[in-house]
Write a structure and sequence with these properties.
By secondary structure, the chain is mostly helical. The protein contains 23 helices and 2 strands.
Length: about 475
């Protein structure tokens, strides 16, 4: 780095560092009548943390530890009380989900499944058929692993497909890359394991309202939402990006060659496949049998233990995952961002801020306006801040209000998680950043097409959630 670059870095770092204390001071100086002093301080601290999460002068994980510094110093909570908020059920859940996604990609099972789906008859006949296939395959994969794993696995395949299209391969590459991104976003809605925001909103829903949602209840609505989004994404890509359709003579042969190069399934792949099947069985089992200890949070830790226990080579004492994978396979920065937000949400509730906010807002907000408010605010904020922070902020504000007004908070949970996925700007989510980094999608195309997709899919999420969540909850429960 040259002297000019270093100077520029220092000039941009200082304002970003000051954004946190400035946000704290602004909120703390605001005349919040009727709010207890400890609650006022806590929400001011929350503003500081949010500001640093957005501007990122320090890593998310560092900003997430600010409550340990601020809350004990102000006498809001002792250090041990703050620490208790970080010991949450979402910690082992997300750790297990992240490690399974790492194993799914590391050992090649993700690529094998993707190529097997693309080898199906008729898939590779035209550019439109390939884009639709990429949407569907990415969505199915994203239902059980993180969207980032899907992007990293599927985008190279999508770009290799684009090179087989002689006419306007550049537009085809853009459409194929965005098909992977949009498919991963849509598939993430299907199950609680699909994307970070699902577990986050479910956990906040349970903590703030006492409302529990089962795997079957969430998935019954999620599959419908995914199915509703895919044709919208396909039509937007078809009319805004996709070149004129024509037959692709060697597309099927290309997939067959790449699939054949993988060889037979390895022991590690078989272990990962076994763990995947077991996870799905354990998640669905409570729908058919009452098992006291088996809930939505229990399954990922089981998968994590098995991945470190199932051998790949017993003589060499090599398991499916190793100690190095535990370091590399967990997005610790994201994990502690979630834990920090959860801890602050707990303190905001305990000090009375959420009750105070609910009382302030319920006078001017009707129950019928809540889903539209959630569906408007969440996607707007997510484009400029990370989705996890946005989900926590919106959930923390709206869940208690829904509880007060007698509105089903599970509908809001579905809407918040479903609209928190940002696909219009490369800096708005890791999945969008990874797609942009492959170089086939320009900023203009990502924003133009992504904005249309965001508006249309957000509307679908709001309307379908309002209709299906109460209906399917009652059906599954019955």
């Amino acid at each position: 780095m040259g002297a000019d670059d270093a100077s520029t870095g220092r000039r941009t770092l200082v304002p970003r560092l000051l954004s946190g204390p400035a946000a704290f001071a602004a909120v703390h100086a605001a005349p919040l009548t009727g709010l207890a002093p400890e609650a006022h301080f806590t929400v001011s601290a929350y503003a500081w943390v949010l500001a640093w999460w957005v501007t990122q002068p320090v890593p998310w994980i560092v900003a997430s530890f600010l409550p340990f510094v601020l809350l004990p110093a102000a006498g809001v909570l002792p250090f041990t009380g703050v620490a208790a908020g970080y010991g949450h059920t979402v910690l082992p859940y997300l750790t297990g989900v992240m490690l399974f996604g790492h194993a799914f990609r590391k050992h090649g099972l993700a690529r094998r499944i993707a190529l097997a789906a693309l080898c199906l008859p008729g898939v590779a006949r035209s550019g439109g058929g390939i884009v639709l296939a990429l949407l569907i395959v990415s969505a199915v994969m994203s239902a059980v692993v993180s969207d980032l794993v899907v992007i990293v696995t599927m985008t190279p395949i999508a770009l290799s497909i684009a090179r087989s299209v002689a006419a306007d391969a550049g537009r085809m590459a853009t459409a194929a890359s965005l098909a992977v991104l949009y498919g991963a976003a849509a598939g993430g809605l299907a199950t609680p394991a699909g994307i970070l925001f699902n577990a986050l909103t479910l956990s906040l829903l349970e903590r703030l309202t006492g409302y529990s949602v089962t795997f079957a209840q969430w998935t019954s609505t999620g599959v419908v939402l995914t199915a509703a989004q895919l044709p919208i994404c396909y039509l937007v890509l078809k009319f805004m990006l996709l070149p004129e359709g024509r037959a692709i003579s060697d597309g099927h042969a290309l997939f067959r060659r790449q699939s054949a190069q993988l060889g037979p399934m390895s022991r590690a792949e078989k272990n990962v496949l076994f763990v995947l099947i077991l996870m799905l069985v354990l998640w669905v089992l409570p729908t058919f049998a009452t098992i006291a200890f088996l809930d939505i949070w229990y399954v990922p830790p089981v998968a994590m233990v098995l991945l470190f226990a199932l051998p790949v080579d017993a003589r060499r004492r090599e398991a499916t995952l190793t100690a190095r994978d535990f370091q590399d396979g967990v997005a610790w920065n994201v994990l502690f961002l979630v834990l920090g937000g959860m801890a602050l949400a707990d303190v905001l509730a305990a000090t009375g801020f959420t009750a105070w906010l609910a009382g302030m807002l319920t006078a001017g907000v009707t129950a019928g306006a809540l889903p539209w408010l959630a569906g408007l605010v969440t996607p707007l904020l997510t484009q400029w801040a990370n989705g996890a922070a946005t989900s926590m902020m919106v959930s923390t504000m709206l869940f208690p209000i829904a509880d007060t007004l007698g509105y089903n908070p599970a509908i809001l949970a579905r809407i918040i998680a479903g609209t928190a996925q940002a696909v219009a700007l490369p800096w708005s989510s890791p999945a969008a950043a990874a797609t942009f980094a492959f170089g086939a999608v320009g900023l203009g195309a990502m924003f133009r097409v992504g904005a249309v997709v965001t508006v249309l899919t957000s509307f679908v999420v709001i309307v379908v959630s309002m209709i299906l969540v109460p209906a399917l909850e009652a059906f599954v429960a019955g």
